[in-house]
Amino acid sequence: MNGMAGHMTANGGGDSAPLAFTPEIEAETAPVWERLRARMPAVEWPIHAPLIAAINRLKRAKHAVILGHNYMTPEIFHGVADFVGDSLSLAREAARTDARIIVQAGVLFMAETSKVLSPDKTVLIPDLQAGCSLATSITAADVRLIRSRYPDLPVVTYVNTTADVKAETDICCTSGNAVQVVEHIAREWGVNRVVLLPDEFLARNVARQTSVQIVAWAGRCEVHERFTGREIDELRVMYPHAQVLAHPECPPDVLAASDFAGSTAAMTDYVTRLKPRQVVLVTECAMADNVAAESPETEFLRPCNLCPHMKRITLANIYDALRHDRYCVEVASSVASRARLAVQRMIDLPPPPAPARYDLVKARYHVNVELI
What we know:
Elements (H helix, E strand, L loop, with lengths): L5 E3 L10 E3 L1 H6 L1 H7 L8 H18 L1 E6 L4 H4 L5 E3 L1 H10 L4 E5 L2 H10 L4 E3 L15 H10 L5 E4 L4 H4 L4 E3 L4 H12 L3 E5 L2 H8 L5 E4 L12 H10 L4 E4 L5 H5 L3 E2 L2 H11 L3 E5 L2 H8 L6 E3 L13 H10 L8 H16 L11 H4 L6 E2 L1
Parallel strand pairs: 3-4, 3-5, 5-6, 7-8, 7-9, 9-10, 10-15, 11-12, 11-13, 13-14
Antiparallel strand pairs: 1-2
Helix pairs in contact: 3-15, 5-6, 6-16
């Protein structure tokens, strides 16, 4: 950066006073810049670096940790997050951290999960409007009605739900362990049908991976539902040597047209381990930027879709969250105790030896799903 000095003004909804980009800040944040320089215009670094330095100092002073989802922007993911990963790995970190404060660099349902698992800790979300289309697609009342309609079936809930919804269910799952959880709970209950809520496409994709019959809800992720199998076919014409990796929240025809399907953790593992020359990550845009910083030998092609909720989290409002201890996430104890059981049952399942992948041969065969 050639010793540039200047000032930044916090953005993204923060109320911070301007912070200076000094030679000291430049030196302090140099290791982060080295990781990001290929993915970020140099003109942006004097804005990000002072906030990164200030946040990392505040974390040490306040005994805080930042849990960063894979969809965070690179300056958050690589600059200030102490633990990064998918929803399952972040839930595990929330359960075992000894930090006094958890800052959730993600969306509100993730912060609720952290509070459920660590009720004695302060859990902060930098923006209360960081929601999720899946989490708002179903309510606790909906789950109670489903239970009355299917009283003999276990209910599995995706972690992309509110604590109120989790409290009404038997066990949670993520995209990385959904097949494992469905088969586990079916064996435990001695049944061959399971209710899987609320993501319709995840449920349809899981149904193609197991002999357990699935009852599903019509919730969808607004990021992943927009991808189509036709888009993947068109990409293959333009980039015949590219490897296409899809998230299981995508429609089934997208998985059927892809080379690999799995959670964000599984997609990261695939790229870093196999080092494909060209790759398309069919998921949220920031994912490619974050993996690319660790995989310079791979060319990352688009398409991708932005999650407007994840993008509400910025360095500026993380800084303000730590400075002002806002916004505190609370979950009623009567809800938290029941939600904790559902999440903990998931966490207690043995982790797979490697991030789970979806069998794409099975993914190409239609399986009927009962849609509520």
